[in-house]
Amino acid sequence: MAPHPGVDTDSIKEVARKHLLGLLEGVRGKKNLVIEQSLAGPIGLFVKFSTLQEYGVDKVFFLENDNLDSSQKNVIFLANGEKASQCIAIAGQIKRLQQNSSTEHDFSVIWVPRRTLVSDRILEESGVLGDIAVEILPLHFIPLDQDVLTLAYDDAFGDLYL
Q: Which three-class secondary structure state does DSSP give residue 24?
């Protein structure tokens, strides 16, 4: 039997990198990036901070720290759309910036790996869905090494087998 050639993890990284950078490029000008802490490591595997800076990212904040400042007009949230707690945190930070800042902000939310009805409902009930642009980064598999992939979906085992 011939050996299996395996999966080209470099191409998976490159596709994810191009997709994320394309989404960042779609927001013109300087921007603050607010990222879910659990996504920082996986995102860091295929795109470096210096590259993010080349695409206009001025500062990076963790969503869980709740310390977003209003230094840039453009604010991009990068979070898991399947976690209600993250959606609530994003809605809260958007509302706080809208109320406390003299600058009018342009908000974007990038859901990883997919957009859900629950996330839309939470943002709608919070009154911020109409004020944001929603995008998707379909990051389903994350290459950890040349021969190791992991799922971006934390609850996959429980949903599939329990």
A: helix
